Amino acid sequence: MNNPLLADFATPFDTAPFDQITPNHFLPAIKAAIAEAKEDISKIKAEALPTFENTIEALDGSGKRLGIIAGIFFNLNSAETNEEIQLLAREISPLLTEHGNDILLDQELFHRVAQVFEQKSQLELSPEQVTLLDKTYKSFVRNGAKLKGDKADQLRKIDQELAQKSLKYGENLLAETNKYVHFVDQESDLDGIPDGIKEAAAQIAEEKEQPGKWAFTLDYPSYIPAMTYAKNRALRQTLFMASGSRCAKGDELDNQEIIKNILKLRHDRAVLLGYKSHADFVLEERMAKSPDQVISFLDALLEKAKPKAKSEIKELEAFAKELDGLEELKKWDFAYYSELLKKEKYSLDDELLRPYFQLEKVIEGVFQTAEKLFGITFTPRKDIPLYHKDVTAYEVTDKDGKYLSVFYADFFPRPGKRNGAWMTSYKGQSMKGEVDVRPHVSIVCNFTKPTKSKPSLLTFNEVTTLFHEFGHALHGMMAKGRYESLSGTSVFWDFVELPSQIFENWCYEKECLDQFARHYETGEKIPEELIEKIKKASNFQQGYQTLRQISFALLDMAYHSKDPSDIISIPDFEEKVMKATDLLHKVPGTLMSTSFSHIFQGGYSSGYYSYKWAEVLDADAFELFQEKGVFDKATADSFAKNILSAGGSEHPSILYKRFRGREPEQNALLKRAGLISE
Ligand SMILES: [Zn+2]
């Protein structure tokens, strides 16, 4: 078979030949590329003596074709999938996992890597090369390459059990979420709920074979609006209790024992590899280097956020009492009264802002902002193959007019696209000898579509999302690394949101908004008082929200930074840990831990703090722009050089200090969030 994935791509800039690819090309191409990658490894092992070039550098350069084909496949599986591709994913994913394990468990290969690592101090390597050597060596060691015999088997056993337990945790949670449905018989019980949500609730009831009624589930699109808008307090309480007690009822779907199993397995794994705790293991490869650093970071934030959170709750209690004579504000009242209070204070709603944010104008604004800051320009290219007609491809050039990157933008929802917004790439950046191989970067979103009578008009939230993803894209497009595994967004996990989050800050700056925020019919600039309102509204209940994030992060750290064998009762442990941050009375029968899928199912264990960490970084970094001017050339140049182009070439603390001139500080975030006064 003539397989376009295995031929040279005869396309502009070597872009993916989407117009020639069909799903049946993927499996044979992946298999062939895995064989090719294995040959690369064999070549490395056939060298007489291992050196930095023939081992560490060669590993970074190995399996390139596999990377590109797998990239195309998984990007399509997210952005334009179908049953055929989904079925293929089930076959392809295990092949790639197995291939990855084959490399990391290859003792002969590890031995060569270790030999180079031991000579590190004599090799006269650049900082980037030292980083690559450390990262490569550690990737083997952290996967157990140094363990012998029994201990190596023990690690494999733990990994298998951990995978099973996390899976089970997730399955239980999904089953609990899916099995719950609450029917409402009387329309009068739905007061306050917007028509669109009511319609959806009626449809769910019909699907559940109770036509004429309304049904609510624990899925976010059903649960969140009900909690936010339902005037009916009993309805809110019912739904809250159902959500809060998921997997905590002592039945066959209970997650409490599984949590204890997972904690023990993670701890044992860390100890086996020579770490004090799971958190120590995870944080070794984070900007925040240790549990102590994370905990003192969270404690410092907590101290500032708590008084503000307390006063916000007082304000809300008074508001609820005046409005409805509520004697005690319960957890199920919080979202509902907050929404009403927010409306009263800011009278800001999406529909008021949308006319100023026409998608085409916002994109132009994003491009102009990037051009003003970094001198890069975007030119649409009609000759680059696309995977869907809604996608646009651009050629990106740098300030000297030199080709920098290909940029794909894919904005509207459709059946084959998953929810949310993300940045991804089809090709990484690296140096091949003296040739700079430039990246192909993409952002995928699910924005409001245009209609017959109206263009695509974005909510302000969609505008910041676009800036956010574009910030990630800049990190990819402006990469100037030597090695792909250290290039672009391949940075420590608690550092990767700096470029994206900092870029959101420009959405609140008049100088930036004036470029593009114009009424789509009249061309009138967005009024200054609306900008002010947006800023104020974005700080609404920041104390409480911050406290909430801190409480989850502290719980995560409490579970993972110590030997968990003294955790006997999950409810007791959780209550003890969350006491300092829980300002509303705890509701008996509810638990956070049994549905905390971020840390027990997904990959966020010992990482929940990263949300706040990244906010501190972006506010602190943006403060420099505010001091020097939001379009200050020198500041932008320094940000481009030290952060955007540097990728993961050195430890993020070093890169950050080079840009900011000092360690990050929390003050800028506290000010921005209104937690301390200016
Ligand atoms: Zn992001």
Q: Roughly how many Å is the radius of gyration?
A: 26 Å
Q: How many alpha or pi helices?
A: 27
Strand order of the largest sheet: 3-4-5-9-6
Helix coverage percent:
40-55%
What hetero molecules are bound to the protein chains? zinc ion
- Looking at the chains present, what oligomeric state does this protein adopt? single chain
Main beta-sheet strand count, sense and barrel state: 5 strands, mixed
Distance between the termini: 67 Å
The coarse silhouette is globular
Q: Report low-confidence residues grouped into runs of 5 or more.
A: none
SS-derived structural category: alpha+beta
List the topology elements.
Elements: H1 26-46, H2 52-60, H3 64-79, H4 83-104, H5 107-118, H6 127-141, H7 149-179, E1 182-184, H8 195-207, E2 214-216, H9 220-229, H10 233-244, H11 256-272, H12 278-283, H13 291-324, H14 334-346, H15 350-353, H16 359-374, E3 377-380, E4 392-397, E5 403-410, E6 422-427, E7 430-432, E8 435-437, E9 440-444, H17 460-477, H18 498-504, H19 510-516, H20 528-538, H21 542-560, H22 570-578, H23 597-600, H24 610-628, H25 633-644, H26 652-660, H27 667-672
Parallel strand pairs: 5-9
Antiparallel strand pairs: 1-2, 3-4, 4-5, 6-9, 7-8
Helix pairs in contact: 1-2, 1-3, 1-4, 5-6, 7-11, 13-21, 16-17, 16-19, 17-18, 18-24, 25-26
The structure holds zinc ion.
Zinc ion (ZN) binds at residues 468, 472, 497, 500.
